[in-house]
Amino acid sequence: KGGDIGSILVTKALDGFVDMEEWQRVVQADPQTEEKIRQALVAIADSTRTMHATGWAHFTHKPKHVFIREGAEGDFQVRFIDFERARHPLLAKTCGIQDLTQFLRHSHYLTREQKLQFLEDYFQVETFSRWQAQCVQALENAKCLNAGKLSRHSK
Predict the structure, then answer these.
(1) How many alpha carbons lie under 13 Å from residue 53 in its C-beta half-sphere?
(2) Where are the alpha helices (DSSP H) in the chain?
(3) Of 113, 115, 111, 123, the residue nearest 139 (C-alpha)
(4) 110/131 Cα distance (integer angstroms)
(5) pTM for the complete prediction?
(6) What CA–CA distance (Å, rounded) separates 97 from 124?
(7) Are 58 and 99 in contact (CB under 8 A)?
(8) How far is the C-alpha of 23 from the C-alpha of 115, rounded, in Å?
(9) What pLDDT score does 34 carry?
(10) How far apart are CA 70 and CA 27, in angstroms?
(11) How far apart, in Å, do the first and last CA atoms of the chain sit?
(12) What is the pLDDT of residues 32-70, one digit of tens each?
């Protein structure tokens, strides 16, 4: 009587895509690792910015919900999954920062420099504006920019 009502979402198969954490483990063996990570992060930043520009916030934007696939030309395709908590909030800008916080906090294998570069790509800038710098400082205070235990550069 209402308690067993649920929903199901059927989507196109993500053949050839892997979640970001798995992809990072695989790409570590590649001699062009840094450049591949850079290109993948640009694609993820672009896709995240596009999602936010349409007024949507994911609310569980974590690397395990980001799937990527390297194309034949070395480009990267990105797909997000698990939109059950996604919303079209009134304060999309603020909620977008919440998504960035979750994504960066759970990106344990990225260095601080890679995380900052991701933010520059997301904001499409080389130098942060005053508001963007405040966002970056908030991420810093929340320890989202720290390199995690899986980072190649951590000890």
Answers:
(1) 9
(2) 20-27, 33-53, 92-105, 112-123, 130-141
(3) 115
(4) 24
(5) 0.85
(6) 15
(7) yes
(8) 17
(9) 87
(10) 11
(11) 55
(12) 788 899 999 999 999 999 999 988 999 999 999 999 999
